[in-house]
Amino acid sequence: CKLKGRHCARLLAALFRDTQTDDNMTDKKAKNPMRDLRVAKMVINCSVGESGDRLTKASKVLEQLTGQSPVFSKARYTVRTFSIRRNEKIACHVTVRGEKALQLLESGLKVKEFELNAKNFSNTGCFGFGIDEHIDLGIKYDPSTGIYGMDFYIVLERPGKRVARRKARQSKVGTCHQVTKEDAIKWFQQKYDGIILYK
Predict the structure, then answer these.
(1) Average pLDDT for residues 4-26, to the nearest whole number?
(2) N or C terminus of the chain with fewer C-beta within 10 Å?
(3) What percent of the chain has pLDDT over 90?
(4) pLDDT value at residue 24
(5) For residues 74 and 38, what is the distance between their CA atoms, to the nearest angstrom?
(6) Cα 137 vs. chain centroid, distance in angstroms?
(7) 30-86 pLDDT, tens per residue?
(8) DSSP string, 81-125
(9) Is the predicted pLDDT of residue 130 greater than 80, yes or no?
(10) DSSP 8-state class, residue 163
(11) What is the spatial distance between Cα 188 and Cα 180, in angstroms, rounded to a whole number?
(12) What is the mean pLDDT of residues 102-114?
């Protein structure tokens, strides 16, 4: 050390103290139950691109899958190439929460063989993926219904997110408490032994 003995010892002690503090903070963060991630909700969307019989059948598939009645989505504007008119019902979706959401998520990930692309994860800590055939989820094939693909979108959050949504004494969730893309990827890898593909 180029500094004199006493100054050098103080400097080394301060560095050691900072290192110990950082390690302790990391351990405390890991053990803190408020830092745990959980599935807030899962939205399953089935876009048919037209109204009528096919959309009705798609809604029945979603109802059979989730046990909930789906909500229909309308087209925002007219697209003549696809014969879509503004405000025409072209898709249906359902929002699932709780234990049912976790069961359906696991079924969907089994179809994908627990492999997701890094681009599937958003900067806000949510992620989504799609499947081509609903019968892969364990639903029996019905020739009169046909086969439909669907999109899964999962929203992750930490305990305490309610403060941003409640009516009384509403406040912002701190930056450190918000879910990031890296947090979501880590959660997926740890909970489901998932594989992330970087293409």
Answers:
(1) 61
(2) C
(3) 29
(4) 55
(5) 30
(6) 18
(7) 678 888 899 999 999 998 888 888 888 888 989 988 889 999 988 888 888 888 888
(8) GGTB-TT-EEEEEEEE-THHHHHHHHHHHHHTTTEEEGGGB-TTS
(9) yes
(10) G
(11) 13
(12) 91
- Tokens linked to 26: 């990391």
Give the dihedral of Cα atoms 29, 35, 36, 37; nearest 10 deg.
Answer: -130
Q: How confident is the model over 18-31, as pLDDT tens digits?
A: 665 555 556 666 67
Q: What is the pLDDT of residue 128?
A: 93
Report d(CA 66, CA 55) in Å as an integer.
Answer: 17
Checking DSSP bridges between strand 150-157 and strand 127-131, what pairing results, if any?
antiparallel
Measured in degrees and rounded to the nearest 5, phi and psi for residue 131 equal: -125, 150
Ramachandran category for residue 52: left, alpha or beta (phi over 0 → left; psi -120 to 50 → alpha): left
Instruction: Return the DSSP state at 139.
Output: P
Q: Which two tokens stand for residue 29?
A: 């963060």
Amino acid residing at 121 = F
Would you state the pLDDT for residue 3? Answer: 46
Indicate the residue type of 162.
R
Upper half-sphere CA count for residue 23 (Cβ side, 13 Å): 6
Query: DSSP letters along 26-44, please?
Result: HHHHHH-GGG--EEEEEEE
The residue among 141, 142, 124 whose CA lies nearest residue 180 is 124
To 10 degrees, what angle do helices 99-111 and 53-66 make?
A: 110
Residues with Cβ within 8 Å of 3's Cβ and at least 6 positions away in sequence, in order, are 11
